[in-house]
Amino acid sequence: MNNLTFKKTHLASTLALLMGTSWIGVSQAEETQQVEPQKDVEVIEVSGVRGSLIKSMDLKRATFGVMDAISAEEMGKFPDTNLAESLQRITGVSVSRTNGEGSQITVRGFGPSFNLITLNGRQMPGTGNSRSYNLENLSSEGVSTLEVYKTARAEMPTGGLGATVNIVTLKPLNKPGQHYSVSAKGINDTSNEKGSDITPELAAVYSNTFADDRFGVSVSLSHQERDFQRQEANIQGWQANVDLPDLAESKVIDPRGVDADGKRIGNHFFPKDMNYSINDVQRERTNAQVTFQYKPIDGLVATLDFTGSKAITGQETTGWGIWNEFGGNINAYELDENGTALFADIGGNDGSFTASKNTTEVEARSVGFNLDWEINSIWKVAVDYHDSSNKTDNGADKGLGSDGQVILGSDQLISKIYDYRSGEVPHAMINWRNGTNILSPGEIDSNFSQFIHSPGESDIQQLQVDARWYNEIIDIPLVSVKFGGSRTEQTMGGLSAWSGLRGGPGFNPAYPQIFPDGMFELHNTNNLLDQFTGGGSSLNPNYYYSFDFDEAVARQLAFLTQDVMGSDVYSINPYFDGIDSQSSVTENTTAVYIQTEWDFKVADYQVQVNAGLRYEETDVTSTVRQRVERQVNWESASEWIMQYEQGGTDNFLTQEGKHDVLLPMIDVKVDVTDDVVARASWGKTISRAPLGDLAGGRSLTGSPKPGSRIGSQGNTNLLPFESTNLDFTVEYYYGEGSYAAIGYFKKDVDNFIQTSITQTSIDGLNDIFNGPRYLQAIADIEARGDQATSTAIFDQMLANGNGNAEGKIEPNSNDPLIVWNISQPTNTDSKSVDGIEMAVQHLFGESGFGLGINATFVDGDVKFDVNSLVQQAPLTGLSDSANFQAFYEKDGLSVKLTYAWRDEYLIGVGQAQGSADAPPQFAKSFGQWDMSVNYDVNENLTVFFEGVNLNNETEQGYGRYEEQFLFARQYGPRYAIGARYNF
User: Fold this and answer.
1) pLDDT in tens, 790-811
2) Is residue 855 within 8 Å of 882, Cβ to Cβ?
3) Residues 291, 296, 299, 302, Cα dihedral to 10°
4) Which of 172, 182, 181 lies closest to 210 in space, CA to CA?
């Protein structure tokens, strides 16, 4: 415990503290919750886990509306090493994970794009070309409090339909004097294979005040490195109602019923591919925060601050798998009662081995200036400006400059077997023409390589002006009136450059001589996905080849020259034929608001009311680069490639939109007894449409294989999601740091966005598939008694003289037009979500033991109907969740055990290689145990141990039904040991 001295401030500061309100929205939340030091009153500050829970409870109790908070246990020590992992301890908050770490949050069933992240009350740009903020890139050392506002506040920036999360950083004048904390830890990720077994994490926090506490500076620095391995099995998508050949009864198992005509009742589904991968990842994260504060006179504080972060993630991937086409390729199959393929014997196409290399850098920075002036006991004004950006770049590898993938393999196969009749991971075996299930190194050929560069950036410039008048004049129960306005310019944009499929593609012609046998290393799968039933040594195939990415690139650059390949010359340049797509959206928002606070009695009950109104007007401008499509060539049995007009024919399409919103809100807080608080809140909140939906213009896929002829078109005039929210909560504060709470919430969301897919033909884009020459090739093949697989059809068309000089097949004018599945977002009807939140936090007196449990149960008419192929607009992220925390803290020893659980939920609608019905992606339930142990060696030095994912939980996903496997990911537990020194 630290002994600090304080003095009482005047009425304004006291009310701000009691109401839990912030100044610039919530930008100065920490300042309004602190008071100035003086020598005449002594207050004991409790630190550690217990102190953090007490502070968080006090914030929850004092504020209007429904708010939860997490406070630092002490300077430089937040409850979890990752801010997202900390937030999931809050009732109603669950996280989605990236690389085994919490990344983005879902609140009350509303996913990342529905929640707003602010830093000291300032609206933060999303990560890269998006609205969603990735919290794993921001360290926790310089953070003092996380505040989650679940109900509307007129003073806050809009965008948090689910919740607004405010990250409050350290302010030196709030804690005068010199303070510092340094820590170091070594991290052992048990999944690591290629990197360092022990990686460092270093952090330092310094704060000091000078000139009689009128000038202050705080600095926070941290650097973390983590090396690990992610193992994964994956299917890119499921195709509904593909053509099925007439097969002998012995080749088909189909339990679906039949109608009067003998036709099967219901839908059927087949996997487009099946692949496996091993990803060796190295990640570095560096954070810095600097804050200067100056108080030239009493009541006037100027703050200048900078927050910056840089996260670099490099990964090398080894993968292998199969690609499927249907119709005549299918030799045998077994379906379940839902029509999902559990087994399929499929001919044609190819099997492959891949090597990928990618380095992605995420760099964020925010510079802000705040002037907070308490003119007198009646008036307070503030001006705040910040300029913030968040950039992503997947071309951070200076040698490659892109995300690169090399695919080698062979099309010399008889058939491929997909089998998901047992275990948790499907099997994919290939029957090669060499008479075995193993391809020899000498048979491995060049398929294709591709290189993609897709940087993105989100920027926000925001000016906010606020004033607050405290009522000391009129004898009415009005406490204060706060009003102000803001001007926000947000720009989100990015581009994508794609090399195309270089070096072939598709074994046409074949060049196995490029690669010596010694380039390939044979491995077994004994340690692959061994946390899943059917994984490890039971996996089929039980082998894979790895090869060096750089060597494979170098050999193909040397051999597949323009003299050999013509227009298919091998190149690693993603800008080989220019920029493929580019878009940006600029939103200019002007907002004004007024918010009033009232305090009065009704009978014997103290009642506090917070009522306000916010008006916003937003202008949207979308600019999209349009490429002119010329034709689609069939370049190999498995590859169809879009051709574009050359010679600077790209053009930029600019479209504009506009919308405005009126957002009323009211909070009522009643002190039922000294220990019981009841709340009721009503208000409106919004979340704006995703960037990709707003960007106008039309784009078509560059690799339009049959079953994957897709495109997208934006809608600049999309209205924001607008939610009318109702909350009722009762909270019982029965002891220091102990309380129980239960609440009900309901959200009625208008302007829900649904992505509709329409089938469209475009003049000039003819389809070789099922054209006259294609059908003639099928007839020729079947006439000689062979199976008309896609490989056989391609070869027959070449034999019939349908290829050009480079062995590619170009469309003819008598071919039918390609039918494209074009997706476009539109505003649709209203949806409703409601739920119950429950929380209990109990400290067992002075025993040192404490316990916290919370759970959220949500429901609504926003679920995905898996039995319908009609396009739908469900709510992604909707799921029940629960958290458990137990700790012991006494005599310098602190032990904390936590468990976070999230039920299955809808990740999104649409699969990368799914059919036009926009099939879903579901995640299975997830539960993770974490633990930390801290021991105070003395007053200043603490040693600690941390364990994350102690139960080695895995991630799994599926499509319409659990039998429609989509992914299985395995990481592993990780541990850290370290020391922290405070002064």
Assistant:
1) 889 999 999 999 999 888 899 9
2) yes
3) -30
4) 172
